[in-house]
Structures are given as structure tokens and as C-alpha cells.
Amino acid sequence: AMNDPWSHPAVDWERTMAFRHHLWRLGFRIAEAMDTAQRGMGFDWTSARELIRRSTAEARTIDGADLASGAGTDHLAPGTARTLDDVIAAYEEQFGFIEGLGGKAIMMASRALAAVAKGPDDYISVYDRILSQSSGKVILHWLGDMFDPALKGYWGSPDFDTALDTVIAVIESHAGRVEGIKIS
Questions:
Q1: Pairing mode of beta strands 104-107, 66-71
Q2: Kind of pairing, strands 178-183 and 29-32?
Q3: pTM beyond 0.85, yes or no
Q4: What are all long-range contacts of 124-127, with beta carbons under 8 Å and residues at least 24 apart?
Q5: Domains of the chain, with CATH numbers?
Q6: Cβ neighbours for 82, distance < 8 A, ≥ 6 positions apart
Q7: Among 5, 73, 120, 180, which is most buried by a count of CB atoms within 10 Å?
Q8: Are 87 and 94 spatial neighbours (Cβ–Cβ below 8 Å)?
């Protein structure tokens, strides 16, 4: 599909879904609608919803197809999240959409959470709330600030070991809900 980076992205849905089928036939698992180059940088939540809807439906047509879709807070306009409850509500919206389709969610790192959190306890609070109410296993995504400077100090500290302690505490508290973590 021809694309103009300054307008709404054009997706060739037929080829996109055909490529998903190809990957599933090869035994790959797919993490959908979460690449930093897409989400938050031109591929908006409206487009991501359509991609998730189509991919989830297609996954049902392939035995053994494994698909997880990114759930974040990127539909919030920058600076509009003022509280942890704003961030939680945004995550709930995206989780609700994905899980409402019968899909599995990847809890994406949130620029909004990074902006409003005061420390590790705020991250634990938000992740506890979302993981406690998820309907299935969740994959966590920890994206470093080298990929997105707005995520500096994610997990409540710029120190890696301190941040790691926080994410491990979240995983241990929800061992039955966390399928894994992707660290970038």
C-alpha cells in the first residue's frame, strides 16, 4: 500500500494477514500492534484496533496460531493523564478490547505512566490492578529509554537494579498471570 507518513497509515490488509498466516505455518508466535515504530509514532489506536481485530480473527483459522496484542495507553493525548487512575482506565480500555475479542494482551510500557508515577510503588499499583483483572495470561513489555526517551526511569528508578527489583516484585506477585516479559 502507498503511504504518506503525514496522513493516516494505509495498510494492505490482505498481504498483512497472508504474512501472518505464513509466520504461523512456520511455527512463529506473533506479537501484534506494539512496535514502537508503529504505536505512538503514527500508527494510532484506531488503526491498532483494526489490526488486532483482524489478526485475532485470522489466528482462529490456524491450528496452534499464537498471537498476543499490545495493550497500552497510547490513545491518551500527551499530557492528559494526570493520575494513576487515568493510566489505569486507559490500560483497561485497551485490555478490554483485546480480551473482548478472546485475545491475549501484552502490557506495553506506558509514556503516561512514566509521566505521572512518583516511584516504584506507583508502578506496582498500576500493574497489580491491571494484572489482577486480566482474563488470561499477560506478557509484560519493558522498553528502555534508548528506544523511547519518554520512558526514562520506568519502574520508578533510572537505576537498572532498582527497576529490576520492582518488575520482579510485580512478576512474583502475579506469577499465575504473567506469561513472560520482553525486555528491549
A1: parallel
A2: unpaired
A3: yes
A4: 124/166, 124/169, 124/170, 124/173, 125/84, 126/84, 126/87, 126/88, 126/91, 127/170, 127/174
A5: 13-183 (3.20.20.70)
A6: 116
A7: 73
A8: no
